[in-house]
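CATEGORY: protein folding

GOAL: derive structure tokens
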Amino acid sequence: MSKRDYYEVLGIEKSASKDEIKKAYRKLSKKYHPDINKEPDAAEKFKEVKEAYETLSDDQSRAHYDQFGHTDPNQGFGGFGGGGDFGGFGGFEDIFNTFFGGGGGGRRRDPNAPRQGADLQYDMTISFEEAAFGKETDIEIPREENCETCGGTGAKPGTKPETCQHCHGTGQLNIEQNTPFGRIVNRRVCHHCNGTGKEIKHKCSTCGGAGKVRKRRTVRVKVPAGIDDGQQLRMTGQGEPGINGGPAGDLYIVFHVKHHEFFERHGDDIACEMPITFVQASLGDEIEVPTLHGKVKLKIPAGTQTGKIFRLAGKGIPNVRGYGTGDQHVKVRVLTPTKLSDKQKQLLKEFAEISGTVPLGDHEKSFFSKVKRAFKVD
């Protein structure tokens, strides 16, 4: 099966900037990471996204890809297959030299060039109140770090990596073959140094020559006030260490906010329901309402209907970007008593007699007409 276009894989245009490429990669790598996405094809998609990013994020490899696509003119007959684009006469000399012994002029990535370390993700579960007001806490993350014994070189203290004698530091080997078309030069990753261009003859006893060890690192996290469920915090330089002296990757904290038994969140606003009695709704009253900022007094006007919503300004959640604080919306529910004493029943009957029959308004008449029609009552 032929490979998909790298720009299509990342969902970007060919004119995309480096920032757009990086943004698309981060979004898709989180979506398809095998530790998060358990779908059968997630690992393959993650690998495809990573491969596309590694190619398009490097200026030389991107230019090479834009000219030749997936077809590598430095590998056998690849320069003529699969609809490869020679890009006019530009690059034809490289192809000719590759096929007929010119040594190959294709662009390649420097194996010793500095590269940024991998990003990491940590999922943090916090309470409703912690999301509203923020907090500081320590977390432990497993990550690779440069070996302290060898300083990340992988070589035994007192020694250092040497230039690979087989590839002469290029990280690649040229394998020549004679064919009816002439001499073909195939370029392969050097298996002696695994493409690094360096050999470690005396390996570090701590890391075994890898230059990195797995550790658990404590990181101080400041949870911003107003953070919402699913939002994330980027901690620059707290990811995996860079390669060949490159910058470290970033750490992304993804927040999961627990549900509250009383409050519901809607952006920066919160909502709740408060029960009141029939007497309070009829005569009016002043009740206490719990908020995230403490209890407050709420005046219930006489004649309040069930479902009425009151607004408590500034009693919601602080905006995560510092744009003020939301409000709290209180919906009142009039409770209908279910267990009445004989005296209570008698008093309600007297109330009904005193009230008399109240004429129905146009709205009520229309409503009851619909009910009659629904039950075919004349």
User: Anything to note?
Assistant: The radius of gyration is 35 Å. The longest strand covers residues 135-146. The chain is about 25% helix and 25% strand. The first helix runs from residue 6 to 10.
